[in-house]
Structures are given as structure tokens and as C-alpha cells.
Design a protein that fits this description.
This protein has 245 residues and is an alpha/beta fold. 35% of the residues lie in helices and 26% in strands. It has a domain of 168 residues: P-loop containing nucleotide triphosphate hydrolases (Rossmann fold, 3-Layer(aba) Sandwich), CATH 3.40.50. Helix 3 runs parallel beside helix 6. The termini are far apart.
Amino acid sequence: MSAPAPAPVATAPFVVENLSAGYGDTQVLWDVSLRIEPGEIVALIGSNGAGKSTTLGAISGQVAVWGGAVRFGEQRLDGREPDAIVSAGVIQVPQGRRLFGSLSVEENLLMGAYLRRDGEVRSDLERMLSLLPRLRERYDFLAGRLSGGEQQQVAIARALMGRPKVLLIDEMSLGLAPVLVDALIELLAQIHDTGVSILIVEQDVQTALEVSSRAYVLETGRVTLSGPSAELLDDPQVKKAYLGV
């Protein structure tokens, strides 16, 4: 693989402080706090229904924030519209890819740059195709006709077209064969090498802890454990609850 498109390097910490959020009258998150240092990969792990996707949704402006704060450097992001959060450099790869199935690979990638007004969109598009040669082969295909692995590549590349400083990835490995997950992990490492901060949400706890430097454990909407990923891999509580050991 070639190097990914240049991205603005994250030079400030990304901080979530005492975040509470929910849907309608139902609260899902209680005082969730986490921190990502510039250029760091952090994992948010937990069982199905723990509130991981809700956390990302609240960060990216898609879920109502009831309390707390989301900060990127000096910028306060909670309460802002999703497009303003994208413009601030915080971009999400959603669970289930959520591609425009009736649009081509090219059109989906260009949608990732819809807020950009610079003259480098086409050159970034070419870099995406060099980074992910399979997408060049599928360039004119409708996204809805791609395999699951190909769709996930498009979803990640679409997010990169927005030149994120902080990349949020929700369930990257969901429904994919191990060989495809390995390829995506390699891609993640290359994105990280460009200086992008990454928050990865994964139900595959083993994968999440292996690719990240630190991690937070979320249970029923609350952070119950955090620390270096290598230590959490050896933590008896984590082993019993998530690794089947």
C-alpha cells in the first residue's frame, strides 16, 4: 500500500468530559470521560449495547448531548451541528458503512470532501486509489454492489477525503473475515503514521486492544475501567468478560 493522503496532523488533545447523552427520554450515557493525545490510537470497548456507538454519535453531533463537554484543543464541539464538527476535523466512519448504494465508488469518495473548498480534492482522490488499489478496480461500480470488505474500504477512504485530524471508527471489523480485518488493521496503522488521532470502537476486544495504545471499557453507559491496552489485555476482568479466558 502507498501512504495515505496527507492530513492535518492533530496537534491538540481530544477530550470528552462527563458526557451524558440519550435518545428521547432514555438516557444511555452517564458521565463518560476519555482523552486522546495527539496522534494516539485509543480504543473504546464493551459488550453489545454498552453505549459505544452512542458515544461516537454524541461526539459527532448525531445524538443529543445532555451534559458534559467535548473539546478538541480550544474548540468546544458539543451542541454543534455535524457539519461544523466535520469542519473542525473530527470525522466518523459509521457502523455499517452507510454508503450511498446507488452512487459509484468515485461519487461516494467525493461526498467525503463536500465541505472542502481547496484545490486538492482530486489529488487526494488519486491518493486514495493508490492507497487502496481495489477501489481503483471498482471505481465506477455502485457502492451497493461491493463486498463488505470493499465497502468498508470506501467508508474509511470517504472519511479520509475530509482530511480528519481525529478519526472515529465504529465497528471496523463487523461482519468481515479475519483476512479482511488484518488488511484494515494495516490501513489503520498507515493512517496513524500520518499523525491522525484515532478513536476506534470495537466489539472485537482482542483486535481493539492490539491496535491501540490505551483503552476505555464501557459498561451500561459508564466507563468502568481504563489504562494502557497491553495491561487491559492481561487484566483478569477483561479476559473473563471479553476474551473468553
